[in-house]
From TrEMBL:
It comes from the Bacteria. Keywords: Plasmid, Signal. The lineage of its organism: Bacteria, Bacillati, Actinomycetota, Actinomycetes, Kitasatosporales. Residues 1-27 form the signal peptide. It comes from Streptomyces globosus. This is Peptidase C51 domain-containing protein.
């Protein structure tokens, strides 16, 4: 009888320990998910706050480039653009919000974001969205930031968009990879930033 009671007590203790471990794992995964969402929201807020800026930033005071990257900066002489600067803008926004990971892999080319992390097909707010404009000899040649998702629609903010190139927002009817969003751009995929 005593042996049976010990077994029951031991089984109850193991069950309680298993339940505790499971709830701890769930709480931990909830914390990780909770941390990811605020990073994306902060990135979106920073990007939207730059709408209307040119290559030298708001009020022409500064240059977009992510510190800790291989980017060289968007602002050229006399307030002109130093080069195509969409990647500089996304790198700067990520850097301003404490993005970690392989930031040193980013350079002035949109395609460098595929070296930062793997591309995927389900966007999240704060992700980099990559486009292929079918430029001969070039892979992904434009990048922007996902700032909102509503159903299948997606809103992005990017630098060096439009004529003349500025920070601007665009809303596309579909976020699906392969979607032709305008006459020259097709969505290639998304890259998610990671917190430091």
């Amino acid at each position: 009888m005593e042996s049976a009671m010990r077994k029951l007590t031991s089984l109850a203790a193991k069950g309680a320990a298993t339940a505790l471990l499971a709830s701890t794992a769930l709480a931990a995964s909830g914390v990780a998910h909770a941390q990811a969402a605020p990073l994306g929201a902060k990135i979106a807020t920073t990007a939207k706050g730059q709408i209307g800026a040119g290559p030298c930033g708001l009020n022409g005071k500064g240059s977009y480039w992510g510190r800790g990257t291989s980017q060289t900066g968007s602002c050229g002489p006399n307030g002109t653009e130093a080069h195509a600067w969409c990647a500089d803008f996304v790198g700067w926004v990520w850097w301003k919000n404490g993005v970690g990971g392989n930031m040193k892999k980013l350079n002035n080319l949109a395609s460098s974001f595929t070296k930062y992390g793997p591309m995927h097909s389900t966007p999240k707010v704060g992700d980099a969205i990559l486009y292929n404009q079918h430029t001969p000899g070039v892979g992904d040649d434009h990048v922007a930031i996902v700032v909102a998702i509503s159903g299948s629609k997606i809103t992005v903010v990017g630098g060096n968009q439009g004529t003349p190139g500025s920070v601007s927002a665009r809303t596309w009817k579909s976020y699906k990879v392969g979607t032709q969003v305008n006459s020259v751009q097709r969505i290639s995929g998304y890259v998610t930033p990671v917190a430091r």
